[in-house]
Write a structure and sequence with these properties.
2 helices; two-stranded antiparallel sheet; mainly beta; 14-stranded parallel beta barrel; 41% strand; 48 strands
């Protein structure tokens, strides 16, 4: 069998791609043992060493670039077994330039462009200097142990392992900038006593991508005694833990299942975790697979940016489907150069009709929408500030027809899909203490019409939000942002001009004001009225908490849920919030016991929503698609707590008028809308960023 150990003595050794071999380990003998990513040599004008090119992968497009290629890494292994990487050393993906004091990231945090053909090889010169974007990458490997070392500036992925079976990690520290650890389509994995810091992406990520070209689900993952954070890159390893970086909606650094979810997730346990300056737990299945049997217990969260707990069942349907063409040209998501095929959208999910790609026959179809209408919202622009442009479904020609679909004249058959709508069920969250939470996003549990998230238990949980928001924030969905200069950690005297969102609108239908047209208003002239509980479904929108906008509940918002148990849960705020604590929308069988929630005087604790104009997932904007009613049933709330019942008898914002509902849902020239107070004089919600000064 052979084997042995490569010993790294004290010293700094510049390397590019190290190839792992079965039965051969790497051991750092000292804290002074450093493997540093080789890069561009300023003195000679050439490369210090050459990284390996990304390997060819027929399944590009079903997952992001970083999940399709592994060889463009500092250390990589494919089809290896029995590997131990150990010792107190450091893998360093960058350095501080002694001449300028600036941080130089040799391992890149971004993905490169894919090749234009699925069988085409990357050119030899592709990665001559800075092509690598992973510190350690493993694919189809077994019996792996990693312990005691550290990674700094690990690029897009500090460590990524895809289809790894039998993997133990203990006492690791991985510090930024993006994903610290990705456990992808792997099984029997244990992670203990480690620190994961990632300000610009998710820190600890469990994914189920199709990067290996087969359906291989995540299964049996145990994570315990770890710290998750989003501090400035490098400041955790140094002990400084600075919080300068707040670009956009702030740092990430969370614990996430998804977004890659083609293969699904079964049996994940996370216990005794500490979250600091991060985004909490996220559980997502949006690509047709199951997410089930999750246990998250005995943890603490402090300084939470965004929702502390987010559960999402969506329908992006990022999975392969066999097309009608044999052309192996790789298209972008909006490129029709391949010619007509069984999808109008997301053509990169369509596999050539050749034996080597297998067979993924369609099992259902969904529409394709013309999202090209940009409503104008009066008072939304601030001079000198770039605002997002909301683009929604065209209000007169919302759908497209596919000439090669089984029903070429039916807009419901524009896109063929080879997987069902995902399922999410059996989630237990217990004994979590959460403090200092972003007021914009409560605990969120979001399924889809006729496809609920099922069997969720939340117990022994206390959440203290910063509060300070009003219902008008949930109605108007206005963009409030500013720019500020902040230091860059590790680069003395260097600053970065950052854009900071105080109340972030979105650029799709969820960014519309939540309003409805009342033809009887203004003495019969008509006018827009507030509709805060009518929230777009957005089943194919990227599943990020901010992409739901500001919600009308400060504590818990649950929609399309069946079986919700809330016991010994407490919600509170440090600054008075005008929104209800809990909003339930299409929830069947829920109980709230030993429950308490702080609310403003006169504000209900609970709001339950009945909606009379709901459509199946992804069919929301098909003209004349029949409506159904969703409601709240079998709900038990504590005696004495106010429950307000709300009925919505209109479709969600951006739904085009048709024979079933003829009134507008989008502001236009005939039905204009302006913010009552323009952005130029609207007060910034100080509780969103209490440590940043808003513009005067």
């Amino acid at each position: 069998m052979g084997g042995g150990t490569v010993v790294i003595p004290p010293g700094r050794f510049k390397v590019c791609s190290i190839h792992l071999k079965s039965n051969v380990g790497i051991h750092f003998t000292s804290t002074d043992s450093v493997l540093q990513a080789g890069g561009f040599n300023a003195a000679t004008g050439g490369a210090e060493c050459i990284y390996d090119n990304p390997e060819n992968n027929l399944w590009i497009g079903i997952q992001d670039f970083g999940h399709s290629h592994f060889k463009n890494s500092m250390i990589w292994g494919i089809d290896v077994k029995n590997i131990l990487i150990s010792g107190p050393g450091l893998i360093e993906g960058g350095f501080v330039d002694i001449n300028t004091g600036s941080v130089v990231e040799v391992l890149q945090r971004s993905d490169k462009s894919e090749m234009s053909n699925r069988t085409e090889e990357f050119p030899v010169t592709w990665s001559a200097t800075n092509g690598a974007n992973k510190a350690i990458a493993l694919f189809r490997s077994e019996n792996i142990v990693m312990r005691d070392f550290k990674i700094s500036m690990g690029g897009h992925f500090g460590i990524i392992g895809t289809e790894v079976v039998g993997w133990t990690m203990d006492n690791l520290v991985i510090d930024g900038p993006r994903d610290a650890l990705d456990i992808d389509s792997s099984q029997d994995v244990t992670v203990r006593n480690s620190v994961f810091n990632a300000p610009r992406d998710d820190a600890f990520v469990i994914k189920g991508s199709f990067g290996g070209g087969r359906f291989f689900p995540v299964k049996n993952i145990l994570v315990e005694n770890c710290t998750i954070s989003g501090y400035d890159m490098g400041s955790v390893l140094s002990g400084a833990k600075t919080t300068y970086w707040a670009q956009g909606n702030g740092p990430f650094g969370r614990f996430k299942l998804g977004t890659e979810s083609t293969n699904g997730f079964d049996t994940v346990t996370a216990r005794n975790l500490t979250f600091e300056h991060s985004r909490g737990y996220v559980l997502e299945s949006v690509d047709g697979a199951e997410l089930k049997n999750m246990v998250f217990v005995d943890s603490v969260m402090r300084d939470v940016i965004s929702s502390p707990i987010f559960v999402r069942l969506g329908d992006r349907a990022r999975a392969p489907v066999t097309g009608i063409l044999t052309d192996e040209t790789y298209p972008s998501s909006d490129d029709n150069r391949r010619g007509p095929d069984i999808r109008l959208d997301d053509q990169k999910f369509v596999m050539p009709n050749l034996p080597k790609y297998g067979n993924f026959p369609p099992i259902r179809y969904i529409p394709s929408y013309n999202k090209n209408y940009a409503p104008t919202i009066g008072g939304s622009v601030v001079p000198g500030i770039t605002m997002g442009t909301v683009t929604v479904v065209n209000q007169t020609t919302p759908t497209r027809l596919n000439p090669v679909s089984p029903y070429p004249n039916d807009p419901r058959y524009a896109n063929a899909i080879a997987v069902p709508i995902a399922k999410v069920y059996n989630i237990k969250i217990d004994n979590i203490k959460i403090t200092d939470v972003d007021p914009r996003h409560p605990i969120m549990i979001a399924g889809l019409v006729d496809n609920p998230v099922e069997n969720v238990s939340i117990s022994n949980v206390s959440v203290e939000y910063r509060g300070g928001l009003k219902m008008e924030h949930a109605v108007e969905q206005r963009w409030l942002q500013s720019y500020t200069d902040v230091p860059i950690y590790g680069s003395p005297g260097v600053t970065q001009n950052q854009m900071v969102f105080w109340n972030r609108g979105t650029t799709d239908e969820t960014g519309l004001p939540r309003i409805y047209w009342d033809p009887t208003a203004n003495a019969g002239a008509g006018g827009w009225k507030d509709d805060p509980y009518n929230i777009p479904e957005a089943p194919r929108v990227y599943p990020e908490t901010s992409n739901f906008g500001t919600l009308p509940a400060y504590g818990l918002w649950a929609r399309h849920v069946k079986g919700l148990k809330v016991d010994k849960v407490q919600f509170s705020f440090t600054t008075e919030d005008e929104r209800p604590a809990v909003v339930l929308d299409d929830v069947d069988t829920a109980s709230f016991t030993n429950f308490s929630a702080q609310v403003k005087s006169g504000t209900p604790v609970f709001v339950t929503v009945t909606h009379t104009k709901k459509r199946p997932p992804v069919f929301e904007y098909v003209p004349d698609e029949p409506y159904k009613t969703t409601t709240v049933s079998n709900i038990s709330t504590p005696a004495g707590m106010t429950v307000e019942e709300v009925t919505i008898d209109r479709p969600e914002p951006s739904t085009p008028p048709d024979s079933l509902y003829s009134l507008p849902t989008v502001p236009d020239a005939t039905h204009p809308y302006s913010y009552p107070v323009p952005n130029t004089s609207y007060p910034f919600p100080r509780t969103v960023w209490p440590n940043i000064e808003p513009p005067q």
